[in-house]
Amino acid sequence: MKLAILGASGHGKVVADTAESCGWQLIEFFDDAWPGLHANGVWPVVGDTAALIRRLADFDEVLVAIGNNRIRHNKILELGEAGANLATLVHPAAMVSRYAAIAEGTVVFAGAVVNADARIGQGGILNTGCSIEHDCVLGSAVHVSPGARLAGGVHVGDFSWIGIGASVRQLVRIGQRVMIGAGSAVVCDIPNDVTVAGVPAKRMR
Fold first, then answer.
1. Which residues are annotated as a binding site for substrate?
2. Is position 38 annotated as part of the catalytic site?
């Protein structure tokens, strides 16, 4: 099985390591910094986005490993339009309910928990040790950082970022393009396009 990963970064290394844990045998990176960038850890960087699109037939599946939510989403759309088969990775050490739904292009890292009837949108990142409780709904290209906790029934809009160690109270609704600061406690709804931080979380900008 041969996997192409677009985005040669530290995040990409963890994606590749997760892919190997899932049984992928051959992994190649692509990045728009190529040819200046030729390796990402032990894995080769062999071309840019255009090269990947030309070589899609060489790979069983493709995954975008770019931390920026908007860029990741746009690259997923670009590759999808080109006919790429998008991978979904769930680390063997993650716990995902059989009643949860995880869309294509999402990666679930080690120690993450996704409980019953949670729905994860396209291109999500569920980072190391985070937890997504029952009935949560995450939009497209949402990043839940390591150790973050979403209680039951939380809704998170497209392109939002839940910072490391943050906690979100049950039934809270978080808008689109929101940034939640590290260690924050979110206890009320958050509108679109704002940054919040603190305990309890308050609007920063």
1. 9-11, 31-32, 67
2. no
Residue 205, pLDDT score:
67
Q: Which CATH number fits domain 2-87: 2.60.120.280, 3.40.1190.20, 3.90.79.10, 3.40.50.20?
A: 3.40.50.20
pLDDT in tens, 184-197: 999 999 999 999 99
**Which among 160, 137, 130, 155 is positioned nearest to 70, based on CA atoms?**
160
DSSP run (H or E) holding 30 = strand 26-30
Annotated binding site for acetyl-CoA: 143, 164
> Residue 21 belongs to what H/E stretch?
helix 10-21
Q: Report if pTM > 0.90.
A: yes
Candidate list 38, 73, 91, 134, residue with the active-site label: 134
- Domain 88-199 falls under CATH 2.40.10.220: no
pLDDT along the chain (205 residues), means of 10: 96 98 97 96 97 97 98 97 97 98 98 98 98 98 98 98 98 98 98 98 88
State the Cα–Cα distance between residues 25 and 148, nearest whole angstrom. 31
